[in-house]
Amino acid sequence: MASHASEDDDLRRLGTFLRGCYGRPHEHHAELSSTNDRALEWMRAGAPHGAVVTADAQRAGRGRRGRTWHSPPGESLYVSLVVRPDRPPDRPDGFGALGLAVGVGLHEGLPRLRAPVWLKWPNDLTVEGRKLGGILCEARWIGNVPEVVVGFGLNVHGRTFPEPLRALATSIALCRDGEVPGRAVLLAELLVALEGAIEPFLREGFAAVAERYLPSCEVLGRVVEVGDREAPDRARRAVAERLDQDGALWVRPVDGGPPLRVESSDVWIAP
């Protein structure tokens, strides 16, 4: 297994392993409140498209809907990428499905694991029902052109998790036989794959990556709960049927009624 002190695990050395455009420039911190917060500051100060912020630890890492992200030092990837589209969206769906394109890139850039990695719509990567990683996109608009920070966390070396995450989370180390890639090497590979998914998406929208997303979409054809994960008693059970051209999820309630279009609600596999 890669040592946490090895050169290929040292995120300060990311530039040594880069093969694409993303990650240039790169800013690394031993600790931050969150990489998204720092990337948003850097973006406002002029950080270019493809700039990356990493940290060994986060004090206030977050996911969707303001939830906290478990961020122990040195075990995982905490990354934020600056995305600056060069023109306004010329499609009705805009850039709303960017997180799905990010999921495609992360999925394609991961090393081989013992079990399949699934994309749980809209923003998680899972293995055998446990969360391997999560995505959080945050945007601001300059006129009619958005500037976006794409944040993602990926569990790499960790083998234990605190309650209540123990039954819900996993890591590359727990899902891979043999050597676990160092975080710098792994991130360099992920950035190449992200570039190969995000750039076509910025030009053509979700259609550019849909065929790469759909085979690994965990929820399609499954009975799911739709609502607020913090209030499951108010969730609605439905069958996830298809993704729209803009990446929205269409579900059919199991208790009858017309299909529902889901754009931003929590969705989880029904027990």
What this model shows, in words?
21% of the residues lie in helices and 29% in strands. A hairpin with a 2-residue loop joins strand 6 (130-142) and strand 7 (145-155). The protein has two domains: 7-215, BirA Bifunctional Protein, domain 2 (2-Layer Sandwich), CATH 3.30.930; 219-269, Roll (SH3 type barrels). By secondary structure, it is an alpha+beta fold.
CATH architecture of the largest domain: 2-Layer Sandwich
The CATH superfamily name of the largest domain is Bira Bifunctional Protein, Domain 2
Count helical runs: 6
**Regarding CATH, which class of the largest domain?**
Alpha Beta
Predict the CATH topology of the largest domain: BirA Bifunctional Protein, domain 2
Average pLDDT number: 90
Q: How do the SSEs run, as a string of H and E?
A: HEHEEHEEEEHHHEEEEE
Gap between N and C termini, in Å?
A: 35 Å
Regions with pLDDT < 50 over 5+ consecutive residues? none
Structural class, judged by helices and strands? alpha+beta
Number of domains: 2
Structure summary, number of beta strands: 12
Gyration radius over CA: 18 Å
Strand order of the largest sheet: 1-2-3-7-6-5-4
Global outline: globular
Largest sheet: 7 strands, mixed
Beta-strand proportion: 25-35%
Fraction of residues in H or I helices? 10-25%
Question: Summed up, what is this model?
Answer:
The protein is an alpha+beta fold. It has 6 helices and 12 strands. It has 2 domains: 7-215, BirA Bifunctional Protein, domain 2, CATH 3.30.930.10; 219-269, SH3 type barrels (Roll).
